[in-house]
Amino acid sequence: MSTPPSTRTVLLRRGEVHSPADPFATAMVVEAGHVAWVGSEGAADAFADGVDEVVDLDGALVTPAFTDAHVHTTSTGLALTGLDLTGARSRAEALTLVRQHADDHPEDRVLLGHGWDAARWPEDRPPSRGELDEATGGRPLYLSRIDVHSAVVTTALLDLVPGVADRPGFSPDGPLTRDAHHAVRAAALGAVGSRQRTEAQRAALRRAASLGIGSVHECGGPDISSEDDFTGLLDLARSEPGPRVVGYWADRDIERARGLGALGAAGDLFVDGALGSHTACLHEPYADAAHTGTAYLSAEDVAAHVVACTEAGLQAGFHAIGDAAVTAVVDGVRAAVDKVGLARVRAARHRVEHAEMLSPESIAAFAEFGLTASVQPAFDALWGGAEGMYADRLGAERARALNPYAALLRAGVPLAFGSDSPVTPLDPWGTIRAAAFHRTPEHRVSVRAAFTAHTRGGWRAVGRDDAGMLVPGAPADYAVWRTDELIVQAPDDRVARWSTDPRSGTPGLPDLTPGAQLPVCLRTVVSGQTVFVRPEE
């Protein structure tokens, strides 16, 4: 799970240290992989002679390293090193990129790409199978939609999956969903060799470290990746310096999850799909489709899994986006509480990934049952607003209710922020900005609350209350940033004005107003060991 702690003692001084232990701290001592002291510049003189290294911060900001609470590491790396269609502005441009990628990779057994979003294209449709066959010269190709819940493929890839046409979710010429999608994805990723897979994982972890991310929660599972992929990533994280990797395996076979080294039988254990692919499960039909999506698990399934995990001492967790899926989770957890008791369920800190369509009743249930909401604010930045995909799928009224972070915080629901990379990029400061400047104003939270959800929140989600902040005794996972003036930003101006008063003792954070330059990571440290240093500019 972790990089071995450094044995060196280091004094960092002449900067801004973001610490609840001292809101005006300018210095910090790290010893044996943990924070040993934080305080003022004057007091730092007493430590200078007894350390192995003194780091002059030259005014830089030091914060806890971020935790990205929902990542698909190998897929992220493959997107970084392979065909990325997130920037394609039309179907024609996407086909051009596919053709170029095929020409540049003549040796690949299966061509892999990610990130198309036809909802943002003028044609409003993905490439057809015939168009992809022509662009690739008849080679196997797998192209996942941006939400990774559907894909378009070539005929040659279908030929590698016998019986795929008989599986639910198959379309003769359109995107594949459900079981058909899972089958072709398994075939496509199965063609990735171990060396290519490991290099993709390294690339993803390097990118994470370069962005000040000290921990990632890998969300694997039999419908998402492979056991070799999952265990290989955990082994890589243990053997090489880099971000910590906490593994979740989305499997109802909890002993299998435990045997693979997972912290929980959780993550993307699908109760439903995604809104963009019309597979999120709704109470009422989509605004642009005459159905309510797809249900993968019932409330009874959820209850059985929560009971089994609670009794086994594992975290349970579910992917639930649509309101009907969230209801199934809430009803299932309530039934589990009836069997094993509220205290045991709360102590297990079970998780719900995404949790986008929430009613006041479901929010109250999350708080009652101690469920962590593992959420992705970049989804709102990408798909929210009156003209966004959410409004297309759900209509304006339902779309405005999505991702109600302020209501979750008011109810006391623990939040852990992540990216769901490669669905949205690894981008912690951008994620905080998206939560603080939510497209629906009543759902906005303060920058400080969002920052906590992306640092301490991720640690709390794995059962650690002693980490994710720079206080004595905490793991020395931190990042050093070049940034402009530190301020306090909150949706309520009165709160912001009071928080900037020195009497409030509120440490500042970078200005994340849309359009403002985001902080630049200079160094990332995990367990006192440097895992990233920005090259000289």
UniProtKB/TrEMBL annotation:
Classification via InterPro entries: Amidohydro_3 (IPR013108), Metal-dep_hydrolase_composite (IPR011059), Metal_Hydrolase (IPR032466), YtcJ-like (IPR033932)
UniProt keyword list: Hydrolase
MF-aspect GO terms: hydrolase activity, acting on carbon-nitrogen (but not peptide) bonds
Domain of life: Bacteria
Ranges for domain Amidohydrolase: 53-532
Pfam families per the UniProt record, alphabetical: Amidohydro_3
UniProt xrefs under CDD domains: YtcJ_like
UniProt cross-references to PANTHER family, sorted A to Z: IMIDAZOLONEPROPIONASE, PROTEIN LONG AFTER FAR-RED 3
Protein name, UniProt field: Amidohydrolase
